[in-house]
Amino acid sequence: xxxxxxxxxxxxxxxxxxxxxxxxxxxxxxxxxxxxxxxxxxxxxxxxxxxxxxxxxxxxxxxxxxxxxxxxxxxxxxxxxxxxxxxxxxxxxxxxxxxxxxxxxxxxxxxxxxxxxxxxxxxxxxxxxxxxxxxxxxxxxxxxxxxxxxxxxxxxxxxxxxxxxxxxxxxxxxxxxxxxxxxxxxxxxxxxxxxxxxxxxxxxxxxxxxxxxxxxxxxxxxxxxxxxxxxxxxxxxxxxxxxxxxxxxxxxxxxxxxxxxxxxxxxxxxxxxxxxxxxxxxxxxxxxxxxxxxxxxxxxxxxxxxxx
Length: 308
Description:
The chain is mostly helical. 78% of the residues lie in helices and 1% in strands. The chain has helices at 5-21, 24-34, 37-58, 60-67, 71-93, 98-108, 111-123, 131-146, 154-163, 166-189, 197-213, 223-250, 253-259, 263-274, 281-300; strands at 126-127, 301-302. The chain is globular, with a radius of gyration of 19 Å.
């Protein structure tokens, strides 16, 4: 595959999406306490989706590009997008404590692994034996990082699953759904310019609104909470998802998926700064493992063709 300016730019947008998503846990933690997870999700996704639809209303060419998307892309990728959001928010809502949130985050951050693995049968990417080593190193680093400087206790992890298994299953489903979404976006809409992601976001927001209506959430709108919701709406919801979709369809998918292993590392670093929580030595070990794993994964897979 030739890497022209459009391919490189799409890849750059994918890197930006990774950086944007790295801030989610730092901001969402406060919003969950002050506003409520489904209430804040409804605001961010409904407003973000509506803002994303503005260019379609103002441009006839963008509307034509939208209608040029295949029905299979809209149904399959739209379904996977909404399924991921529902699983993620319900998983967080069903956790018993902050420790379980960290543990399900580890399972959720398996999605880069799933993206690379699904790219082999679906996009015909060719893998080398070293891929397994890279995946193991990256996952081990993510586990250390998401433990915020403390290694995960395997015994306690299994006890938590036995006592409250649904959030763990949902988090694993998140990883599978987003990995499939990423490769199916390339498979079904590679090279196309139409953008249906704002519709996917809006549908998710409407479902969050219906769910939040039946839940008792705090809904305390302080100045900080309003600012955080605005950030979640514009950056981590609208821009991040649109950029990622473009990267998966027109960028270097193996490179971007490999770099996405840095998401938990950036997330912990940003959270430590934002929440004033110091990082331990194990975090830096995790950074090294994730870095090594990402490099190994990248060089263990050959980029699939653009039109795969």
